[in-house]
Structure formats: structure tokens, C-alpha cells
Amino acid sequence: MGIEVKVPTLGESITEATLGQWLKKPGEAVAVDEPVASLETDKVSVEVPSPVAGTFGEAMVAEGDTVNVGAVIATISEGAAGAAPAPSPAPAQAPAAQAPAAAQAQGHGITDEQAAALRLSPAVRRAVQETGVDASALTGSGRDGRLTKEDVQKAAEGKVAQPAASAQPAAQAPAPVAAVGDRREERVRMTRLRQTIATRLKEAQNTAALLTTFNDVDMTEVIAARARYKDLFEKKHGIRLGFMGFFVKAAALAARDVPSVNARIEGDEIVYHDYLDVSVAVSAPKGLVVPVIRSADRMSFAEIEGAIAGYGKKAKEGTLTQADMAGGTFTISNGGVFGSLLSTPIINPPQSAVLGMHRIEERPVVKDGQIVARPMMYLALSYDHRLVDGREAVTFLVRIKEAIEDPTRLLIDL
To answer: Catalytic positions, please?
Structure first.
């Protein structure tokens, strides 16, 4: 019996997780603090580090199983890494008989050495074997550039038919090919993150009195300001100037005039905040997550853009923590980056409102009696009508519109 690997503490009120993927397999060398498994909680993915250096022993749970905090999930044989006994060499007189089995185990030309060089986890390697994609040609979206099962599956869906390997034994039966017109179904278990998203969104619909109001905004002045200062901004602060900073600052000004948008209902009381913690919706490989920019009303443009860029990088790498997403008093979601023209976003309980941004497109508008083309964006504010009145919601959007169409207001606090 080796050293036990246990599920670490996952955060306040979180008692269980789903084992998403094994990053090591029995017999592989493990360094101290090297991740051996990834866990999926309600909001984030967490890697389980090895407590010692040695050799990975036994995996006690399967991928997809639910595990409790403190549960033993694997063992590590302590000692020099790679100290496990090497397999005995194959008899010299039987290489031909073993070639087909070896080729099959390597999976379409993926050798043990190649898999180690590419840092493929057992689950990813199995996906490569099943789909036949060239793992060396893929760019990983996981932590430190590692390939994930999703990367392999996406590549498999888009790849063209590949010629059979010349080293394939003639006696081996060809893989079955689906006939043209075949109708297939695939069942994939929902991740814990996706289950939580579904539960919370349905909870919002069942609990809150949801209503959405719309407006549009002329982005001419913000686009001009960004074009004028983006190079100087990046040179000074080391971060790109985007549109989100303008909207976060505008929301902070609007929330001062309409505090109910930044409040929440708790029992029979309304809780108002003298700060604005903005939950910014960020797309991650396994779903939408909402890390929080804390005290955004007191931050500069550079601080806001830096926080957003940092969260975006962590979301892509799967390193967001529970603390990154705890709290939040108001949400901004930018569907425009995916091309959305208009939507009705759903609030993130217990918040009372969410601002939806959309794509910018040139549309004809009337200015000073003339029809002109302007870069316009639709804005949507979904809110809990139990707390926010229609007049307040419209006023909030108008304040946003005024600040974006005249960014000087952001500087002189109007």
C-alpha cells in the first residue's frame, strides 16, 4: 500500500466533486506536486497534486465518479520516480507476432514515447486511438497547452478521411465505416459544471419575475477613443484597451443613480451595496463561467482590462478558483463576441440584473435630420421585476447609453 492521494478541500460549502480525468496511469513516474487527476466541482476544475515523488500506483475511482472531500482516490509508491520494474524483453524470435498488437496499442502510430512527449493523459490517448487523429498536429486548450478530450473530438469531427497506415497488418479487419445517411445518437453525461448551470438558470426562471428591456447605443465615440489611445494604453499598461472597460465604468455610474439594479432580495429584505462587484461572463472549454471583478466602481480602465484579461486566460487554462467566482452583485455578458445581434440574458441569482452586450454593426440612423450610417449595438437589461421597476430599468439603460455615446461623462463622473 503506497501513499494515499486524497480529494483536497475544494472551497467553502463544497463537499463533493466529479473525477473528470486521470492525468497519470499506473506505473508512470510522478513528481511531487505534479497533478495526477482533475476534479470538476459546481463551478471550476481543480487538479489533484501528488503528495510525494514516486510511481503512480492504483486508481481507485473511475472517470465520471462522484467523490467526497477527503476520500482516497489513488495511491503513489514513494521512492525514486520511474523505479517500477521494467517489463521483460520480448523473445527475439517472435517480433512479427507481436507487431499487430503493439500497433493496435499504440493507436494509429502514437507510440509510448510520442504520448509522453505530448503529455497525453490516458483519457486523451484513448480518444486519439479511437478517432485516429494526429495528436502532434493539434493545439491543446488545456492547462499548459495540454490536449483535452474535447480537442481530440473536435478534430475528429472536422478531419477528412486519412489513408490507412502502410504498416497496418494485412489480416487486420478494417474499421467499420458508417454508411451515408446513417442516423446515430450519442449519449454524453453532463459535467457537474453544466448540471449546475442548468439548475441555476432554471432556478432564476422559477424564482424571479424576469423582464427584459432594450435600447441601442451609438458606438462611434468609444470606437474613436479606443483607436486614438489603444497603442499608448498598451504601451503604458501592458494590456489591450477593449470595450468592456467602458461598459463596466458606465454600469458603475448608472448603478449610483439606480441602486436597485445592484441590489438583491434576501427573505423579506432588500440588500443594497455601496460597491459594484461585476460578474463578467467568460467562455470556458466546459461552459460559461462568471468570475468577479471586485469593487469595479473604484478601478481604473487599466485595472478593469487587466482583471478581465487575467480571468480570460485562467478560464482557458481551467485554473479559475472558487474564490474567483464567489459573490458578484451585477453581471455583464458580451454575446457580441460570438456574433449575437440581440438576446434576453438570464440573471445570475441572487443578483437582480444582468446587462447583455451584442455585436456592433453599421445601421442607418437619423442624425440632425440626415440619414447616416453609424456603428450601433443593441443593449438588453434583464432584471427581477420584484425589485427593479420598469422606470428604473429604463433609466439604468439610458445612463449607460449616455456614457457610451459621450465617454467624457466617464471622466467627469456624470
So the answer is: 385, 389
